[in-house]
Amino acid sequence: MSDKPLILHKISRSFGPVMAIEEISLEVHRHEFIAVVGPSGCGKSTLLNILSGADSPSTGSLAREGDVRMIYQEGGLFPWLTVSENIELGLRQFKDINERSAHLEELLTLIQLKEFARHYPHKLSGGMRQRVELARALAGTVDLLLMDEPFSALDYLSRLRMRQELARVLKERPRTVVFVTHDIEEAVQLADRVVILSERPARIRCELKISLPRPRSLTHPEVVAAVHHIIEEMGLENNSVSN
Amino acid sequence: MTDDKLPWKVRLLPYLVLLCMLAFWELLAIRHIYPESSFPSPLSVAAGFKEEIQSNRLQNDLIASLFRVSIGFTLAVIIGIPIGLVLGLKLNTRTAFMPAINFFRNLSPLAWIPFAILWFGIGDKPAIFLIFLSSIFPIIIGTVAAVANIPAVYFRAANEYGIRGIALLTQVTLPAIMPQIITNLRVTAGLAWLVVVAAEMIAGKDGLGWAISDDRNGLRLDLIVVEMIVIGSIGVVLDRLIMRLTRIPSVRWGYER
What we know:
The complex is a heterodimer.
Chain A: E1 6-15, E2 18-28, E3 33-37, H1 44-52, E4 59-64, E5 68-71, H2 83-89, H3 97-110, H4 126-138, E6 144-148, H5 156-172, E7 176-181, H6 184-190, E8 193-197, E9 204-209, H7 221-233
Parallel strand pairs in A: 3-7, 3-8, 5-6, 6-7
Antiparallel strand pairs in A: 1-2, 1-4, 8-9
Helix pairs in contact in A: 2-4, 4-5, 6-7
Chain B: H1 8-30, H2 42-54, H3 57-89, H4 91-105, H5 113-120, H6 124-148, H7 152-160, H8 166-203, H9 208-217, H10 221-244
């Protein structure tokens, strides 16, 4: 196992004459949490599709170690399977039934949904469904998690809670994460490194390292300062209004 | 969707409606707008029921019709769903075959009756053939639509979790379309039940449809009403039976959004 499970070298992707992403280079360290922030329609999804292997870059190279697990905004749980059965999909590598059920128990405890093990996803709230999806992705030994705006369909309070939840769960089960979002606060609260993309074609505008330990309060001065910095970088600050 | 949770008073309402219909029928009958021979009263129909059951004719006709529908419909399901799956999953095959399938779907199966008689004679076979024809095209089209509507995210997730080949079919594609398939089967079974009556009227020597045409020749309108009541009731029962499938826990998601 190398120290860098994901290396992008000058990756570009164009669809006909339209350039979606241009010369993106990024080295992701093991168990690093990268948040990718950019204006909507800037090519974040194209980037994720390339990272997951669903799409290939037009030019440039991608080195990826092992499989990936993806967490989707619209929900990728199978509605015809219970919470347990969905999580067990992630445990297919374990052939021994006892071993598998031990892992399942552990994951259900981790996401605090033990009493909902036999429920179907449509009976759960949006936040609970995302926790199940998280458990399914963490099941087994796949290291690389790709998250595509996973909390954007939730209401504001659930979103705040899920950020804490994700930070807590990752502390117990460290993973390498690429987290795509348009929510700047979310990126700053969660990531070791925030990558800010430009408008289409997406290029890396700048990177911001945040070393504050997680969980991070939304109102911590360092978080507020980082949010402010990113908003300025993205040119979203109205110049005529000073704070 | 389930009416188990309704208060008992509300659940009695359908029976009240039926009772009102019966009363209205009796009212029309005693006013003798039409003679008894062309507008049988509830009482004479009740007597007809007794006569039909005692002579065993009703039971035999019912069994004959149910047998034909079961065979024809089951064949259509067994053959139609796999065809629908293939067409739903393969764009080129779908493009090639859909216009032809739509053509046959829009062709009343009753138009085939002369051919059914010439090819299969009189009895079970032509009726089964016609039920099969009336059911298979809606089943194919319903399955194709269901497969085409499966969200792509399920297939992407399946790929990430290593579900491939036959497992992809049985663990992802089929469960994903199951709620729509069940709804489609309800509609199609109703259609098959309509067609069996028509088929037997022309190409039968027993069955409920044949009984109607036989009683027409004998001017026994009271017995025709008996058969109409049985046909309608059996249609309701068939629909209820298929609707029971929607209670399977792994398909509930399709009906509770």
